[in-house]
Amino acid sequence: MDVVLYLTPVVGLLALAFAWFKSSKINAADAGTERMQEISAAIREGAMAFLKREYRLLSYFVITVAACLASCD
Prior knowledge:
This protein folds into two domains: 1-30; 32-73. Helix content is 89%, strand content 0%.
């Protein structure tokens, strides 16, 4: 059990290092042709609209659950 306690932060740091490495490789890559950049912008716009709606619905859920938990005292 003690090994897991010490191994968990190490694995977390390794995962963060790997995510940074992959992110830097992707950011250094060529953006592509003008058409590819247009498609990318459209995908980004749609994804952000989806995330905005998703986070709004999630906030309603979290507030409702928090209110229920607070009233259970």
